[in-house]
Amino acid sequence: MKKVAFLFALAAVALVPTIAAAASSTGPQTVTGAKPAIEMRTRNLGKVLATPGRYGIYYWNVEKKAGGKIKCTGPCAVAWPPVYVKGTVQKHINGVMATFGTIKRGSKRQLTVNGLPAYTYYNDPKGVVLCDNVDGWFAVRPK
């Protein structure tokens, strides 16, 4: 019986890093149209735009070159979850230097910032932007 309890405890300890990693990863964010973004200061980049939950907002250069059309789908949208919107989006938000809107993505509406679809990065912790200028992904900076 002690051996079974020991093995169970060992398995539980082995799972802690996996559970912690999953808890720190972001999935798709849903923001309200009244306040879809904030300006956030980061240590490495200075001011960037973020969701009200303090997850950095990104755009993809591939979509910029495609005139703002959604190209990030499937596994791309898992690594770079779209920022979805509830309610009517205000074009300008007091204290945030950007222009907001939406684009239809399936049955949902995805936030756009300065005309480009908005995403977060799956492995970013709150308040940290890890992937600026990585594989064509850029943190959105205030205009």
Textual characterization of the structure:
With 143 residues, the chain is of the alpha+beta class. It has one domain (27-139). It has three helices and nine strands; from the N terminus they run αββββααβββββ. The strands form four sheets. It has a three-stranded antiparallel beta sheet with strand order 6-7-8, with no helix packed on it. The protein has a two-stranded parallel ribbon with strand order 1-5. Strands 2-3 form a two-stranded antiparallel ribbon. A hairpin with a 2-residue loop joins β6 and β7. The radius of gyration is 18 Å and the shape is globular.
Give the key terms:
143 residues, alpha+beta, three-stranded antiparallel sheet, two-stranded parallel ribbon, 3 helices, disordered N terminus
Q: Strand-and-helix sequence, N→C? A: HEEEEHHEEEEE
Domains counted in the coordinates: how many? 1
- Widest sheet: strand order? 6-7-8
Distance between the amino and carboxyl termini? 64 Å
Number of helices: 3
How is this structure best summarized?
With 143 residues, the chain is α+β, with helices and mostly antiparallel strands.
Write the layout of secondary structure elements.
Elements: H1 2-24, E1 29-32, E2 38-42, E3 46-50, E4 58-60, H2 61-65, H3 75-79, E5 83-86, E6 100-105, E7 108-113, E8 116-117, E9 137-139
Parallel strand pairs: 1-5
Antiparallel strand pairs: 2-3, 4-9, 6-7, 7-8
